[in-house]
Specification:
Layout: H1 4-13, E1 15-18, H2 24-39, E2 49-51, E3 64-67, H3 69-72, H4 80-93, E4 98-107, E5 115-118, E6 131-138, E7 149-151, E8 163-165, E9 173-175, E10 184-186, E11 193-197, E12 202-204, E13 213-222, H5 229-251
Antiparallel strand pairs: 1-11, 2-3, 3-4, 4-13, 5-12, 6-11, 6-13, 7-10, 7-12, 8-9
Length: about 250
């Protein structure tokens, strides 16, 4: 599944596109689970939801994001998409790689929200050395007009770059001084996936198309031995809130 050419491309560019990693049926299984969660977005635990389009003075569901959907819908961990992504991450990062985090972002049709240039590593709180890989899986074909990802090749080789707050966007940071001349758009067919490293500068176009763009993003890290206690605490807090949410739902 992973040839030396994939490893070399990822190491050189910081990202790689795999257009046929999954079958359409495998992706539909994920899409059904995520659709069910987004349909109940207002009912989900507050710690599990964000609106990426929120400004300093408002919070709604313009660009909904679900944190740890695989905790809210454990069946996601049993899907072929999860299993193959996990295996792929282990092959690319090496022994000791483990699943750290997942989230899902939905951009509705005609959504002008652009995911600004950024490095995922800028949000890392621990200074411990580790490698991380994100697997970005759209639940439908995604073209440039639909909000596909875009990358700056080789940007992962420069370490953590300067970032600045994005005016009008709560908590958002963007990379300063990105040269977009060499940026690469990465449209994907159904069944495709985009992979990138923790330091790779990336963003996503607005969804100006007629269809909803939903993506499941899985993050893997290596080595496990260096995971700080804060990471386990973060997940434990989410588990507790999700358990309470589930108990409340069962009582209704």
């Amino acid at each position: 599944m992973v040839g030396e050419d994939v490893r070399e491309f990822l190491a050189e560019n910081g990202f790689v596109i795999l257009p046929d990693l999954f079958t359409p049926a495998e992706v539909r299984e994920v899409a059904d689970a995520l659709d069910a969660l987004f349909a109940r977005f207002a009912e989900l635990p507050a710690t599990s939801t964000l609106d990426l389009g929120a400004t300093a003075g408002e919070f709604g569901r313009d660009v909904p994001e679900i944190l740890y959907p695989s905790l809210l819908a454990p069946a996601l961990r049993d899907t072929a998409v999860f299993r193959r992504s996990s295996d792929l991450a282990r092959r690319l990062l090496g022994p000791g790689t483990w699943f750290r985090f997942d989230h899902s972002i939905r951009k509705p049709p005609g959504c002008a929200y652009e995911t600004v240039w950024h490095q995922d590593r800028v949000h890392k709180r621990s200074g411990l050395p580790e490698r991380r890989l994100n697997v970005w899986v759209p639940t439908a074909p995604v073209a440039v007009a639909d909000g596909c990802l875009r990358y700056v090749p080789g940007s992962h080789l420069g370490g953590v770059l300067p970032h600045e707050p994005v005016p009008g966007r709560r908590g958002a940071l963007r990379t300063v001084g990105v040269d977009e001349a060499g940026a690469v758009d990465c449209p994907l067919p159904l069944g495709g996936a985009a992979l990138h490293l923790f330091e790779t500068v990336h963003g996503a176009h607005p969804n100006l198309g007629a269809s909803t763009r939903t993506a499941w993003i899985l993050q893997f890290t290596r080595p496990r031995a260096l995971v700080p206690a804060a990471a386990w605490l973060h997940r434990a807090v989410h588990r507790r809130h999700i358990r309470r949410w589930g108990d409340a739902g069962a009582a209704r």
